[in-house]
Specification:
The structure holds two protein chains of two kinds. Chain A has one domain (26-94). In chain A, 80% of the residues lie in helices and 0% in strands. Chain A has four helices and no strands. In chain A, helix 3 packs antiparallel against helix 4 (57-94). Chain A is flat, with a radius of gyration of 18 Å. Chain B is of the alpha/beta class. Chain B has three domains: 1-78; 83-266, no CATH class; 278-459, Rossmann fold. Chain B is elongated. Classes of the chains: A mainly alpha, B alpha/beta. Chains A and B meet through helix 1, helix 2, helix 3 and helix 4 of A and helix 1, helix 2, helix 3, helix 4 and helix 8 of B.
């Protein structure tokens, strides 16, 4: 990937992100934040390569810690978002 | 299809799922599905990445993934809804920390293999800086939210911060110019960590929602920058999407506080107003009341607005408030909640707490919906909120919060303020609302006070 293509992707994705999330009701601010936070744990896929490549002890250790931290971010983030959203949805069902 | 093709297609699928997921998270009806789509995208991304031929040590990965999953599940399941801001701050920090480590590891590897060029070095430097700021900033925010850290900074903090920022930019340049010297990158990580601490140490409670949103954006940008290091399109796309959504939330929070993003990051925290004695404002005009009196006022009310603030979360009063709402509704009173955008310690914090107490979301009105209705409201009950209901924002141009959009609770016929004391809120200023003719102060713990009112309502 050339630098220019990478920059193109970056700029287009930022604009897409700004368009996607313009008007979010206050109720969803917290779940949106924790959900998008879980998506930012995508660093995990980079960490997997760093940790698994077995280059040197140092890089493997850095990668290992990175995988652990990113996994906490991803698993915990999606799960807690789901827990919050379930509270919103649960109430609707109980009402006739 | 070759393996790299499979990986690329998998990343494309994941990117699409992230986009649809974030879009879904923005609407109540589709939020659950959106979150699931995001999680599915992540799973696809992880699975195809495991096909990467440079991965040889699967045992290491399995151990790290297992530890991370167990810790993640425990944190997500155990957390109390009142502590949600802390958890999000912590997750933010972990994401930022992971980005630093990945960028550092792949940069070191590239230097060892002789394949490091300027572009890689700059990308690694930028990632290390943003990631380190995100990590240490989030950790400080976490401790500040737990109130185990009370630091308020020192004079000239913003100058030190600016200096460290300049040094950091210089260090990025040094990493790029001398990629073979590892020391520059480590120093840069250190500078980034210091910058994160300096940036958040002085942040007070009211700025927390802005800071959490901003750190959320940073964690996305850090992931995106990592994508430039690894030449990975999915990291770039997913990271930028998160960066953009974090930026939007930051802007919403800033608007709600009438502050610019620049002010929050670069200026010193607003100084507490000095010179005006609180007794000028309060004098002997503050009227204290009792739970029984409040119950009698509520008895004859047709419409009640409850305005929650962070004090509600501290007192864990959300369930008591639900009981209050239920007993008022039983006697035919209309009850709604008026929620200021920065009430609580993170965007949407109050909504989550009230949802936990099974209060219906149609009852939750935001500032623009509730403000026009105060004039037709019989009783407004303010629980643990202060600055967001301070009429000085409207009436006193010299006030530190002048111009900040507030809830106009003073327009309702009667205002009940449940609060421990007359102590000022985060802005450090007196609140003329407490001394208004139509305001009654019910001093005490938020939860106990509400329970007392409910008990008194039953016996009225």
């Amino acid at each position: 990937m050339t630098l220019l293509i990478a920059l193109t992707l970056f700029v287009l994705a930022v604009f897409l992100g700004l368009e996607l999330i313009t008007k979010v009701p206050a109720t969803l601010h917290t779940p949106l934040m924790s959900g998008s936070n879980a998506v930012s744990g995508i660093t995990l896929i980079g960490a997997l390569v760093s940790a698994g490549a077995d280059h040197t002890m140092l890089t493997t250790t850095l990668g290992f810690v990175a995988v652990t931290l990113a996994t906490i971010n991803v698993v915990g983030g999606f799960l807690v978002t789901n827990r919050m959203l379930a509270m919103f949805a649960g109430r609707k069902k109980r009402r006739p | 299809m070759t393996t790299p093709d499979v990986i690329s297609v998998g990343y494309l699928v994941a990117a699409v799922l992230f986009i649809l997921g974030l879009k879904g998270l923005g609407r109540p009806r589709t939020a659950v599905r959106g979150n699931l789509m995001g999680a599915t995208g992540m799973l696809v991304a992880i699975l195809v990445t495991l096909l990467d031929q440079s991965i040889i040590s699967y045992l290491t990965l399995a151990v790290a993934l297992l530890i991370g999953s167990v810790v993640g599940v425990l944190l997500a399941v155990k957390v109390k809804m009142t502590s949600m801001p802390e958890l999000v701050a912590l997750f933010n920090g972990f994401g930022g920390g992971a980005s630093v480590l990945v960028a550092t590891a792949s940069f070191i590897e590239a230097v060892d293999l002789g394949s490091a060029d300027n572009r890689l070095a700059i990308a690694a430097g930028v990632t290390a800086l943003i990631g380190a700021v995100t990590f240490s900033g989030s950790i400080i925010a976490f401790f500040k939210l737990q109130e185990s850290l009370k630091g308020s900074g020192f004079t000239g903090l913003h100058l030190v911060r600016a200096a460290v920022m300049l040094v950091s930019v210089g260090l990025v340049a040094m990493v790029a110019l001398q990629p073979d010297t590892r020391g520059w990158l480590w120093t840069l990580v250190g500078a980034g960590l210091l910058l994160g601490v300096l940036g958040t140490i002085a942040i007070g409670g009211a700025d927390m929602p802005v800071v959490i949103a901003l750190l959320n954006a940073f964690s996305g940008v850090a992931a995106s920058a990592t994508g430039f290091v690894l030449d990975n399109s999915l990291l770039i796309i997913a990271g930028s999407l998160v960066g953009a959504s974090g930026l939007i939330l930051t802007r919403i929070m800033c608007t709600a506080m009438n502050r610019s993003i620049y002010d929050v990051i670069f200026s010193a925290a607003p100084a507490a107003a000095v010179g005006r004695d609180d007794s000028d404002v309060y004098g002997d005009r503050v009227t204290a009341t009792s739970a029984e009196e409040v119950a009698m006022i509520l008895e004859i009310a047709d419409r009640v607005v409850i305005v929650p603030g962070y004090g509600l979360a501290v007192a864990q009063a959300q369930h008591a408030v639900r009981d209050l709402m239920t007993s008022l509704e039983a006697s035919g009173t209309e009850v709604v909640f008026g929620i200021h955008p920065v009430a609580g310690r993170m965007p949407g914090h109050m909504n989550v707490l009230l949802a936990e107490a099974e209060i219906d979301y149609e009852h939750l009105l935001d500032m623009n919906q509730v403000n026009p209705t105060f004039a037709q409201t019989d009783v407004t009950i303010v629980i643990g909120a202060n600055d967001v209901v301070n009429p000085s924002a409207r009436t006193d141009p010299g006030s530190p919060i002048a111009g900040m959009p507030i809830l106009d609770v003073d327009e309702s016929r009667t205002v009940i303020v449940i609060k421990r004391s007359l102590s000022p809120g985060f802005a450090g200023i007196a609140n003329p609302l407490f001394a208004a003719d139509n305001t009654f102060m019910l001093f005490g713990d938020g939860k106990q006070a509400v329970l007392d009112i409910v008990a008194a309502l039953v016996s009225v």
